[in-house]
């Protein structure tokens, strides 16, 4: 009897010890433990949060975009005092397509570029030509417009070639492709380049006789002439560079990527052609 009782007590103690042990880990249908599943979920959430932080649209950032004050038909003030133009319409269409917010600040071309380099804005859209020199400092989007340079003179001027500019003063707008082209041929044809801050001041210089000609981006001067500006284009258009949206190098790669994707989409949808046709007659 004592032997039987001793065996029974031993069995009860063994059962009790087993019942006080740690509970086996629960597993999911995939074979991972609940703890592992929770850890994986946390990791996925963290990765997702990181991806959102790298996206301007996801983070809700509002981009500051600087532009020119007068560079019709790309940016200019209409009769209501509103800034309008090809650049601004393209930017708006792309922002709507890609879902990012922005604020346009018209400050003039040279001031816009200066602000970009100082980190005071996130991007510039201002009929900005993509050049070898500029790509060293800026990240450009894919080209959104192919331009060129034209020489404009008074409607009743007898100037029909660059040779007739010898010993004369020629107007150009600071920082533009027209200015770069004028300076590149100034020595060859013997004329002096006078730089102006705005296109309107440059045109007025020619009209007032302060300069015999001006060099300007072809679609810009063509638009102004079609609206009654008393100038004419006596020479064929010089092939120029393409316009691009610019950010400071390495500063906003996600913004350039969104611009490129949006540009592709609005071209495919026909919205891009609608914008051009609004400002430039075929």
TrEMBL record:
<dbReference type="InterPro" id="IPR001638">
    <property type="entry name" value="Solute-binding_3/MltF_N"/>
</dbReference>
<feature type="domain" description="Ionotropic glutamate receptor C-terminal">
    <location>
        <begin position="62"/>
        <end position="282"/>
    </location>
</feature>
<dbReference type="GO" id="GO:0016020">
    <property type="term" value="C:membrane"/>
</dbReference>
<feature type="domain" description="Solute-binding protein family 3/N-terminal">
    <location>
        <begin position="62"/>
        <end position="282"/>
    </location>
</feature>
<feature type="compositionally biased region" description="Low complexity">
    <location>
        <begin position="25"/>
        <end position="48"/>
    </location>
</feature>
<keyword id="KW-0732">Signal</keyword>
<dbReference type="Pfam" id="PF00497">
    <property type="entry name" value="SBP_bac_3"/>
</dbReference>
<protein>
    <submittedName>
        <fullName>Glutamine ABC transporter substrate-binding protein</fullName>
    </submittedName>
</protein>
<feature type="region of interest" description="Disordered">
    <location>
        <begin position="24"/>
        <end position="59"/>
    </location>
</feature>
<feature type="signal peptide">
    <location>
        <begin position="1"/>
        <end position="25"/>
    </location>
</feature>
<dbReference type="InterPro" id="IPR001320">
    <property type="entry name" value="Iontro_rcpt_C"/>
</dbReference>
<dbReference type="GO" id="GO:0015276">
    <property type="term" value="F:ligand-gated monoatomic ion channel activity"/>
</dbReference>
């Amino acid at each position: 009897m004592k032997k039987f009782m001793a065996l029974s007590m031993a069995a009860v103690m063994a059962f009790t010890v087993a019942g006080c042990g740690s509970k086996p880990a629960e597993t999911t249908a995939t074979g991972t433990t609940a703890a592992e599943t929770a850890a994986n979920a946390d990791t996925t959430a963290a990765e997702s949060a990181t991806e959102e932080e790298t996206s301007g649209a996801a983070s809700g950032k509002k981009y500051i975009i600087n532009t020119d004050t007068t560079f019709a038909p790309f940016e200019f003030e209409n009769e209501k005092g509103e800034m309008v133009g090809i650049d601004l319409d393209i930017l708006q269409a792309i922002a709507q397509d890609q879902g990012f917010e922005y604020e346009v600040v018209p400050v003039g071309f040279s001031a816009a570029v200066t602000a970009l380099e100082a980190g005071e804005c996130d991007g510039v859209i201002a009929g900005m030509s993509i050049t070898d020199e500029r790509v060293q400092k800026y990240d450009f989007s894919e080209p959104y417009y192919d331009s060129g340079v034209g020489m404009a003179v008074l409607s009743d001027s007898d100037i029909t070639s660059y040779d007739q500019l010898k010993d004369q003063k020629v107007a150009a707008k600071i920082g533009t492709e027209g200015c770069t082209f004028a300076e590149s041929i100034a020595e060859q044809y013997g004329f002096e380049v006078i730089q102006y801050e705005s296109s309107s001041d440059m045109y007025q210089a020619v009209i007032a006789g302060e300069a015999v000609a001006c060099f300007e981006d072809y679609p810009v001067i063509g638009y102004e002439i079609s609206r009654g500006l008393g100038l004419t284009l006596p020479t064929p258009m010089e092939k120029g560079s393409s316009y691009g949206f610019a950010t400071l190098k390495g500063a906003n790669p996600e913004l350039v990527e969104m611009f490129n994707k949006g540009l592709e989409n609005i071209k495919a949808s026909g919205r891009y052609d609608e914008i051009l046709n609004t400002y430039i007659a075929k």
